[in-house]
Amino acid sequence: MNVFDCHLHSDMSPDSREDMENYIKLAVENGDKYFLTTEHANIIDDKENPYRHMIDIEIIKAKTDRMRQKYADKIEVLFGIEIGWNKAVHDFEIEFSHRYPFDMIILALHGRPAGDTVDQRFDDYLAQCCVAAATFGNYDTFAHVDYVLRYIGHTDLSKHRERLTQLFQILISQDKALEINTKQAPDPQAMERIDYILSLYTQLGGKKLTIGSDAHSVPVYKNAFDEVIELIKKYGINQVYVYKQRKAIAISI
């Protein structure tokens, strides 16, 4: 099984210290056809200089280009990005997404939602996800829909069926992929959430998935892929996707 990790961060992202080349060496050892880097792109609300936190994008692109040339006979290095949606700079983010020749664009939310309880905060988070997914347009896959639960605590996702249905219907109608994020797998609560996400998504007719570890270091690259892939197959899905030049490529699992 040669499934590619479609979500990871190197020291080109502010929250990782791992050299990108270390991931590439591991991917080559695994016999992977592709390696995809998806560094953070978080644009802040600064009207005088809205791209001041994007200054490293040229460095990221240059490093990716060097790695592509260096490993050209061993693996195909792809240039992805994870855009952290921020309503205040929505227009800037869309313009940024068109400025560079990304192979794959992940859309994600990383903000802290409002509310007094876990369920109130998760509902607020999902509401923001729906707005981002519906209005952003220029992206390929939507990341970690249970992201905020990493920090505020676990809940039964069935209590949020209506909001999750709204989000998944947006993705399906726009032919966007849904990311299955394995960062907290195989923790039982994380696997419970993934199971519910897959169950509801497939019930609604969803078929297009990407899979990513959200790794920030080599030891968790492709974290729990075997366990999560078996769960994906339980719902009749036998392929996942990677993107090259913004075109979906199906990978059998």
What would you say this structure looks like, in words?
The longest helix is centred in the middle third of the chain and has 19 residues, at 118-136. The protein has a six-stranded parallel β-sheet with strand order 1-2-3-4-5-6. Strands 7-8 form a two-stranded antiparallel sheet. The N and C termini lie close together (6 Å). It is an alpha/beta fold. It has one domain (20-252): Alpha-Beta Barrel (TIM Barrel), CATH 3.20.20. Helix 4 (118-136) packs parallel to helix 6. It has eight helices and eight strands.
Could you name the CATH topology?
TIM Barrel
As a whole number of angstroms, the C-alpha radius of gyration is 17 Å
Q: What's the helical proportion of residues?
A: 25-40%
Sheet having the most strands = 6 strands, parallel
Apparent shape: globular
Distance between the termini: 6 Å
- Sequence of strands across the biggest β-sheet: 1-2-3-4-5-6
E-strand count? 8
Determine and state the CATH class. Answer: Alpha Beta
Mean pLDDT over the residues: 94
Structural class: alpha/beta
Number of helices: 8
Order of helices and strands: HEHEHEHEHHEHEHEE
Which quaternary structure do these chains form? Answer: single chain
Q: Please identify, by name, the CATH architecture.
A: Alpha-Beta Barrel
**How many domains in all?**
1
By CATH's scheme, which homologous superfamily applies? Metal-dependent hydrolases
Strand proportion, as a percent range, falls in 15-25%
Uncertain stretches of 5 or more adjacent residues: none
